[in-house]
């Protein structure tokens, strides 16, 4: 197998999924990990960065709850409102611990190797800095944590002679991979999941079917899309109805699971959609003793664009020339945001 099974997963991959490690693409990757024993390299700077981002996201989530309660004070009247009778720091810590447990469970799928700074050549890193080599650039000079991670991975290669799959949505890591021939770059987990299976000729067949005619896939995604939750940014208690996915502006597929005439495919898409929205305007509401008294109701049809991603399963005919059905669609997104009044017509 030419695709490395020694891998590095950058913080950007976890950030992109908002640390939802039970999402569709993470589940597909875990299924693959049950069959292939991956070796996951975790440099100390990356480990620290991931845990710092978990802490920051937990604190940000609590702040979002505070902001929501300020905009809609009646939320504090809910018996199960998370901030009722709970210290903010304690709630943030609980959220952090919950994400940490999910991360630990994810790591259990791999042989873990934590990399320290032994053998890292600081002079080499400073040369990268002086020359503007990735991860440094004119626009991003303070990339020393990433540089230390790359140097640690480099040192691991020198001691093991193993090639390393670098999975990252960060362009700086992509540039670093161009400089080091023993690093192979993958922009996402689905891209790597597909690559590891490319020796199976059916992957090419699935891509050929999708490129020839993916109308059944687009139709299935369009039918499932309205079943997502839709959040009106101006007022969470607003309603969105008559959701319609109107167009796929762009869609990309990765084959992440191969079966007998049925396959799992990951997708990333840019879409346009419309919805009829209705909500009370909290910006112009009158507040009395913590109670909000809205005076103006906003309603109309909103038309906007967004990004969606997820996985689906297709079934093919016996010759694997035609897609006969598409189902089991799972979206990465828990909800879709609908913007302000300027989007409405």
Shape by Cα distribution: globular
CATH topology-level name of the largest domain = Rossmann fold
The overall pLDDT, averaged over residues, is 86
- Poorly predicted regions are none
Structural class: alpha/beta
Q: How much of the residues is beta strand, in percent?
A: 25-35%
- CATH architecture descriptor name of the largest domain: 3-Layer(aba) Sandwich
> What is the number of strand segments?
13
Element layout with pairings:
Elements (H helix, E strand, L loop, with lengths): L5 E4 L1 H6 L7 H12 L3 E5 H28 L16 H20 L3 E5 L6 H10 L12 H17 L3 E4 L3 H9 L3 E4 L2 H8 L5 H11 L2 H10 L4 E4 L6 E20 L3 E19 L5 E3 L2 E3 L3 E20 L6 E9 L3 E4 L7
Parallel strand pairs: 1-2, 1-4, 2-3, 4-5, 6-13
Antiparallel strand pairs: 7-8, 8-11, 9-10, 11-12
Helix pairs in contact: 3-4, 3-6
Explain this structure.
This protein is an alpha/beta fold and 345 residues long. The protein folds into 2 domains: 191 residues, 5'-nuclease (Rossmann fold, 3-Layer(aba) Sandwich); 142 residues, no CATH class. It is 38% helix and 30% strand. The protein has 10 helices and 13 strands. Strands 3-2-1-4-5 form a 5-stranded parallel β-sheet. The chain has a 4-stranded antiparallel β-sheet with strand order 7-8-11-12. A hairpin with a 3-residue loop joins strand 7 and strand 8. Helix 3 packs across helix 4 and helix 3 packs antiparallel against helix 6. The protein is globular. The N and C termini lie far apart (54 Å). The model has no long low-confidence stretch (mean pLDDT 86).
């Amino acid at each position: 197998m030419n695709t490395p099974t020694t891998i590095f997963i950058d913080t950007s991959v976890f950030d992109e999924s908002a640390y939802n490690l039970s999402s569709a693409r993470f589940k597909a990757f875990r299924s693959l990990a049950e069959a292939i024993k991956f070796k996951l390299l975790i440099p100390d700077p990356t480990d620290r960065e991931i845990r710092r981002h978990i802490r920051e996201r937990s604190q940000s989530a609590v702040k979002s709850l505070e902001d929501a309660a300020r905009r809609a004070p009646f939320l504090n009247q809910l018996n199960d409102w998370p901030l009722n009778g709970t210290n903010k720091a304690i709630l943030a810590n609980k959220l952090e611990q919950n994400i940490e447990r999910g991360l630990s469970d994810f790591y259990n799928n791999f042989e873990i190797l934590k990399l320290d700074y032994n053998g890292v050549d600081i002079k080499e890193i400073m040369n990268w800095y002086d020359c503007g080599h990735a991860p440094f650039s004119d626009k991003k000079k303070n990339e020393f944590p990433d540089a230390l991670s790359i140097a640690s991975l480099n040192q691991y290669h020198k001691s093991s002679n193993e090639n390393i799959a670098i999975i990252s949505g960060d362009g700086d890591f992509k540039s670093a991979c161009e400089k080091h021939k023993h690093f192979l770059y993958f922009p996402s987990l689905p891209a790597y999941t597909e690559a590891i299976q490319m020796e199976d000729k059916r992957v090419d067949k699935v891509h050929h079917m999708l490129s020839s005619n993916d109308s059944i896939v687009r139709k299935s995604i369009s039918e499932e899309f309205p079943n997502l939750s839709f959040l009106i940014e101006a007022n969470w208690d607003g309603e969105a109805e008559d959701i319609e996915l109107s167009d796929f502006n762009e869609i990309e597929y990765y084959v992440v699971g191969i079966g007998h005439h049925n396959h799992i495919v990951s997708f990333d898409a840019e879409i346009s959609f419309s919805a009829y929205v209705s909500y009370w305007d909290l910006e112009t509401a009158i507040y009395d003793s913590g109670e909000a008294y809205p005076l103006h109701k906003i309603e109309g049809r909103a038309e906007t664009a967004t990004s969606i991603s997820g996985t689906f399963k297709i079934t093919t005919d016996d010759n694997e020339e035609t897609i006969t059905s598409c189902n089991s669609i799972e979206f990465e997104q828990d909800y879709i945001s609908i913007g302000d009044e300027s989007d409405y017509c």
